[in-house]
Request: fold
Amino acid sequence: MNKRKQKHQEVAEQQQKEEQMLLAEDSFDRVEPKSSDQQAEEIERLRNINRKLRRKYQEAEQEIKQLAKEQSSNKDELLDIVRT
Reply:
C-alpha cells in the first residue's frame, strides 16, 4: 500500500512540475508586445496549453475516482473480515 501511495505521489509531483513549466513558458512569452500574427500564434499556443491542462485535470479526476473505488473495496473487504 505504501508503494502505491509513493507512486501516486511521484506522479502528482511530476504533473505539478509539468504544469509549472507550461505556466512559466506562458509568463515568459508575455514580456514583449506582439503583432497580429504573433497574437494569433499566442492564442493557438495558449489553447494547446489549455487542452493539455484540461486533459491532465481529467486524468487526475479519473485517478481520484479509481482510488476512491479501491479504497471502498478495501474497506468492504476489511469489514467482511471483521464480521467473520
